[in-house]
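Section 5: illustrative case.
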């Protein structure tokens, strides 16, 4: 198993955190992992992205020109990464941030209305965890148990009271992805 993923959106949407949690979960399961963030001074508000590779075998390079799966949370990210999804690959997008939906017919597009659901559930800070749940429904590359361990490791201890809310958000994302 090898999954090459790009996650992209505006800075502050939890893009890098989502990738970090996915990478930690893979490490905890003994998988080979790379996590390569890309952002600049525009981290808050500008576009940020992270490439994550999770594999059973050694990874030759963290630099990719095409992806098995792209998660895009805004229109600039869709415009940039839709062409880079491998034919037959998956594109996951949040309906809130996309004005013109994906157009490619040789990939599988999944809409997840995570922002809308997060607002409805008063869990806006867990929006990214809903999206992560959607990814894990489509590609169960790591277990929920490993994701929760990774969350515990990456969240500062003062925020550990939010772990149950994050788990609920992941499970909700698994339910609402289309």
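Designed sequence:
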């Amino acid at each position: 198993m090898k999954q090459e993923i790009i996650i992209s959106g505006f800075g502050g949407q939890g893009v890098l955190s989502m990738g970090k949690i996915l990478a930690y979960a893979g490490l905890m399961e003994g998988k080979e992992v790379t996590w390569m963030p890309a952002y600049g001074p525009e981290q808050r508000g500008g576009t940020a992205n992270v490439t994550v590779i999770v594999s059973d075998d050694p990874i030759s390079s963290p630099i990719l020109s095409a992806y098995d799966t792209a998660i895009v949370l805004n229109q600039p990210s869709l415009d940039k990464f839709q062409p880079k999804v491998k034919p037959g690959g998956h594109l996951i997008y949040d309906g809130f941030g996309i004005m013109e939906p994906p157009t490619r017919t040789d990939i599988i597009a999944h809409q997840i209305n995570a922002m809308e659901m997060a607002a409805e559930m008063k869990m806006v800070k867990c929006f990214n965890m809903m999206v992560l749940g959607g990814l894990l429904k489509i590609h169960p590359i790591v277990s929920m148990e490993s994701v929760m361990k990774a969350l515990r490791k990456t969240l500062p201890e003062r925020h550990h009271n939010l772990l149950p809310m994050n788990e609920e958000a992941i499970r909700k994302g698994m339910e609402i992805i289309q």
